[in-house]
Amino acid sequence: MKFLRSISTRRLLAICAATVAAGIGATAIAMAASGGGPTPPAEPLPVAVHDALTAPSVEGVSARIQFTNHLISGSDVQGADPILSGASGRLWASSDGHLRLELQADANSEGATSDSQVLSDGHRAWVYDSGSNTAFEGTLPAGHDGADKGSSAKEQPPSLAQIKKGIARLAEHAAVSGAEPTDVAGQPAYSVRVEPKQDGGLLGGAELAWDAVHGTPLRAAVYAKGDSSPVIELKVTDISFGAVPSSVFDISPPPGAQVTNVSPPARQKDGQGEAAPVTGLGAVQRQTSFPIAAPDTLAGLPQNEIRLIQSGKDAGALVTYGQGLGGIAVVERPADPAQGSSPSSGDHGQLTLPRVSVNGAQGEELDTALGTMVRFQRNGVEYTVLASAPPDTVLTAARAL
């Protein structure tokens, strides 16, 4: 976690946004907007999903894309980082797990000069921003690429009955639409919308559309509560299916780029899997160097869990309150002495965040369409309070620690 302490807030947010973009791309292979083309016949959602999962595999996809990101207010972002302010570009994906996103800052973005690259081979991934000549690379979490080749090779798509049962379980917690016939970039497609029934915080819903012939997802979008326009969307303006030359994925950060490794901790190889998490106030407190702030309730929500994060001199605690997306998370860890009393002193002006006072301590607040972050330092401890809730709620929680 040490790099998280020294990385600028702007770069950290860029990683988060790029992860969303890469995740959408890896899942969907290609995204697109409605194009007035043919639509498929109406089908029940379980049937449409089953047909997609059993469709013949696609060798690859090449597409021109439009990435929309309204997660952060433009007044909080200086410059035109394409991942943070929106971008157009291209996408390539192949059936063997390779993915490449090439994003250029939109021409209507003030000071649009940089571009970004996201590349993954299914095992490792990296994100590069030309504006800062900075790259972040790392190993994808175990199991992301179906690492257990022996079992995955024999795995069969779920049956129609299993799909019906899965949708029924999802419907217990979320409102699930039917498979709406539509068209995406001239391709017949089905679209589904999922909305949380409760404890959804500021999340309004998510939409996914997939090709009715190939089974390939074609559009993904996330919506904030009460907003009919997507907060984050990746779509294609032109699309073609077919094999992608391997040379397309043969790129790397340029010489001289500042590269930061963000790989997660390696899993144990002794047959025991990952170590059991350390939970409970007493057990976590014994491994941390500072008193953990963990009131029984926070902003009206009951305490849920206290969990150890990291270890050694950087050991910290994650304290959660409430359930689901409507809950609150508090990250507590030793403050970096080099940052002084300001948690954002390492940003060097790249991202301007509103200042807030937390019981006399100077902090910063990031207000997004899907949630709020308040970060401050007190007595050598850095506190980060996160929730899919309005700023007033999160600031009240921070002041109660």
Tell me what you see in this structure.
By secondary structure, the chain is an alpha+beta fold. It has two domains: 260 residues, Lipoprotein localisation LolA/LolB/LppX (outer membrane lipoprotein receptor (LolB), chain A, Clam), CATH 2.50.20; 119 residues, Phosphorylase Kinase, domain 1 (2-Layer Sandwich), CATH 3.30.200. The chain is built from eight helices and 21 strands. Strand 18 and strand 19 form a beta hairpin. Helix 3 packs across helix 6. The longest helix has 20 residues. It is globular and about 60 Å long. The N terminus is likely disordered.
Detail the topology: elements first, then pairings:
Blueprint: H1 2-6, H2 9-28, H3 45-53, E1 60-69, H4 82-85, E2 87-94, E3 99-105, E4 115-120, E5 124-129, E6 134-139, H5 149-154, H6 160-171, E7 174-176, E8 180-184, E9 187-196, E10 203-211, E11 217-224, E12 230-241, E13 258-261, H7 281-285, E14 297-298, E15 301-309, E16 316-321, E17 328-334, E18 355-358, E19 361-367, E20 372-378, E21 381-387, H8 391-399
Parallel strand pairs: 6-13
Antiparallel strand pairs: 1-2, 1-12, 2-3, 3-4, 4-5, 5-6, 7-9, 8-9, 9-10, 10-11, 11-12, 14-15, 15-16, 16-17, 17-21, 18-19, 19-20, 20-21
Helix pairs in contact: 3-6
What is the class of the largest domain in the CATH system? Mainly Beta
Quaternary structure annotation:
single chain
Which residues form runs of ≥5 with pLDDT under 50? 1-35, 144-153, 345-349
Helix content: 10-25%
Q: Round the mean pLDDT to the nearest integer and report it.
A: 80
What is the CATH superfamily classification of the largest domain?
Lipoprotein localisation LolA/LolB/LppX
Order of helices and strands: HHHEHEEEEEHHEEEEEEEHEEEEEEEEH
Shape: globular
Relative strand content:
35-45%
Q: From the coordinates shown, what is the CATH architecture of the largest domain?
A: Clam
Alpha-beta classification: alpha+beta
If you compute it from the alpha carbons, what radius of gyration comes out, rounded to the nearest whole angstrom?
22 Å
